[in-house]
Structure formats: structure tokens, C-alpha cells
Design a protein that fits this description.
This protein has a single domain, classed as Glycosyl hydrolase domain, family 43 (Tachylectin-2, Chain A). The longest helix has 9 residues. By secondary structure, it is mostly beta strands. It contains four helices and 24 strands. A hairpin with a 2-residue loop joins strand 16 and strand 17.
Length: 366
């Protein structure tokens, strides 16, 4: 059974077609106004981008041949219909191709809300015969409900054919004790600190249900002496908000190692940033990397970019180059999130790096 557009496999297939390398010039940010961008390299040899924003109660799609010039394909999914479980706050769509079908994992508010929770997010799946839709929900309810709001579903098909879903349990009503929380109380800043955590769980190959119980993958550091605590706690220590996030995960596998990228801090603020952790198993334990964060604001170094995060990763068509796609802001874009793309690499030493955020002239190599 072929699964062409699990992105790495697709690029391997396409690279076998031969052809010389092309270099397409570009400059960040791209002319795409989305948050949480996700890029699929489909079996038709084209790239498709999905993200948060641009369509009321749904999602749109952009297509490209070169990762630089993007054409808007229109709305591809609409929720808040009579038969939809999803009614508001449509976020973070990701699309995967399998056996001639396209499956969209997305987050939204669930209409079943008997206790009137302010954050009632869940994850669902919609399917289409085309990457440009229309996508139709596979069920009249979310994929799962563990009693707390969940967002940012990301999928891995492992080498043995098993599937794993990664998602973020939201900060909402999830106060966590830590040295950072103690520090914030002592400073008179916040009474409590809520946290979001990333979980992983096996999912059925037909994407209709999860298997077993979720496994905790990532959470913010408990100790302030932890190497990760400073950058993952900036939204709290700056006095911005009483929350520490671990969200927007993206997992990939190289040389038998699982790399999970994640975003920390407030997505609407300047301190949003990306780190990663590694494991030899899809459900961990994962160890955060010493070179975190691998993507953060560049204003302290004289740049103009802040609020970078919630990334995805795609490959060049020849399968040789990784690209990190993420959202960010500049003074010119204001609070609106726009899309950036920069080269990413995993070295022989296993270290993941992102060459960004850049705003000077650059090149996409295919």
C-alpha cells in the first residue's frame, strides 16, 4: 500500500525523476497572511499550504510549485453547519494524503458544552478527494474527548505502519506548581500559572479513533535552573500573561531518531519561539535539545521579526533540503500573522537548526 504524500516519502519518489537543481529567489515574509502554517507536498508534485485565518468558520488553501509563489485556491472547509460538531475558533489545519484521499486534522470549539466552558476546543478530521477540497467531516463529533480542551493535532506514520497523533492540552483550567509559579507569586505578578502540555497517542489507520491512553510528551520545566526554563517562561517572567505554553508540535523522523518541534510562550506576543526534543521511540521519553530555542525573535540582534512559531516542515522536491515554515510578525505587519520560510537542517551530530528568521534575499533550492 502506497502512502505517497507523507512528505518525506513523496519527495523521495519525486527525486527519482531526475532533473537539475533550481534556485528561486524570495524574501520573508511571504505574501501569505496565515497563522499556524502547514505545507503538504502532494503526489501531484505541488505544495499546498493551510493555516489559521482567512476564512470565517473554516480554512482556505494556497498552492505553489516552488514554495515562493502561492496561489489562493479559496475556502476548502467550512464548519458551523447543521451537521458539524465544530462551531467556532477554527485553528491549525494539517492535511495528509493517503490512498488517493486527503485528511485534514483541525481544532475548533465543540458544540457540546453543557458547563459553558470558555475554551472548549477539540480535534476533528475531515476528508476530501482533492487537496483543494471540499473537506467534509468524518464524524459528527471530535476525534476524542479526554475531558480537557485540545488543539494542534499533528500526525506521524511510523516505519512499521502505525500512526501516532500529537496534540496540545490547553492551558485552560490547568494550573501547575513549579518554581516559576512560586517566583511569580513572590513577585506579586500572578497567583497561579496555567500550562499547556503536548501528548502523544496511537491512532487507527483510518483516523476514526485513538488507541489507548495519551502519553505525556512535553511540558514546561519545573525548575528555574533547567536550561529550557528561561526561554519557555518569557511570557510569564515579562509579566505578559500567567500561562506557559507547549503547543504547535511537529514530528519527523531521521536516522531512527524522532524529532518533535514545539512552540512556547504566548502566540500573540513577541516571545513566541520554537524548540525541539528527541527520542528513540514515537511516544518518548523525549529529551529537549541543548541548542533550544532554534527559532526566536531577532529584534535583540537588530532584526525586525518577532512572534515566530507554530511551524511545520516540508522538503524540497528532490528530497535533499528541509524547509521550516512558520508564522511571525514585523513592525510592518503589526499584529497580523504572516508566513515565513527558511532552510532547516539536521546535522551528522543529530543537531537540528533553522536558518532564520531571515528577511534578506534568499533562495529556495529544488
Amino acid at each position: 500500500m502506497k502512502h505517497y504524500a507523507w512528505m518525506l516519502l513523496a519527495t523521495v519518489v519525486l527525486s527519482a525523476c531526475g532533473g537539475g537543481t533550481t534556485r528561486t529567489p524570495y524574501q520573508n515574509p511571504l505574501n501569505v497572511k496565515l497563522g499556524d502554517p502547514y505545507v503538504l507536498l502532494a503526489s501531484d508534485g505541488r505544495y499546498y499550504m493551510y493555516g489559521t485565518g482567512g476564512v470565517k468558520n473554516g480554512f482556505g488553501c494556497y498552492s505553489s510549485d516552488n514554495l515562493v509563489d502561492w496561489n489562493y485556491e479559496g475556502a476548502v472547509y467550512k464548519g458551523k453547519t447543521a451537521d458539524s460538531w465544530a462551531v467556532a475558533n477554527f485553528w491549525a489545519p494539517e492535511v495528509y494524503e493517503q490512498d488517493g484521499k486527503f485528511y485534514m486534522f483541525f481544532s475548533a470549539d465543540w458544540k457540546e458544552n453543557p458547563t459553558n466552558e470558555l475554551e472548549n476546543f477539540r480535534i476533528g478530521v475531515a476528508v476530501s478527494d482533492s487537496p483543494t477540497g471540499p473537506f467534509k467531516e468524518m464524524s459528527d463529533k471530535p476525534l476524542f474527548d479526554f475531558g480537557y480542551p485540545a488543539i494542534d493535532g499533528n500526525l506521524l506514520r511510523d516505519d512499521d505502519g502505525r500512526y501516532y497523533l500529537y496534540y496540545s492540552r490547553c492551558c485552560y483550567k490547568h494550573p501547575v506548581e513549579s518554581e516559576v509559579a512560586d517566583w511569580a507569586r513572590e513577585k506579586g505578578m500572578f497567583d497561579s500559572i496555567e500550562e499547556s502540555w503536548v501528548y502523544g497517542i496511537e491512532i487507527s489507520p483510518d483516523f476514526t479513533h485513538v488507541i489507548g491512553e495519551p502519553v505525556l510528551i512535553l511540558r514546561p520545566p519545573v525548575s528555574m535552573s533547567d536550561k529550557q526554563a528561561e526561554w519557555e517562561s518569557r511570557s510569564v517572567t515579562s509579566g505578559e500573561v500567567n500561562r506557559r505554553w507547549t503547543e504547535g508540535s511537529f514530528i519527523l523522523k531521521k536516522n531512527g531518531v524522532y524529532y518533535i518541534m514545539y512552540s512556547s510562550n504566548f502566540f500573540g506576543g513577541e516571545n513566541y519561539a520554537v524548540g525541539y526534543a528527541t527520542s528513540d521511540s514515537p511516544l518518548g521519553p523525549f529529551v529537549k535539545a541543548d541548542n533550544n530555542p532554534v527559532l526566536e525573535k531577532n529584534t535583540p540582534k537588530g532584526g525586525i521579526v518577532t512572534g515566530v512559531g507554530h511551524n511545520s516542515v516540508t522538503w524540497s522536491k528532490d528530497g535533499k533540503q528541509l524547509y521550516c515554515v512558520y508564522h511571525g510578525r514585523t513592525a510592518a505587519t503589526g499584529k497580523e500573522r504572516v508566513v515565513f520560510i527558511d532552510k532547516m537542517s539536521i546535522g551528522d551530530d543529530g543537531k537540528l537548526t533553522v536558518d532564520g528568521p531571515t528577511t534578506e534575499m534568499n533562495y529556495i533550492e529544488q
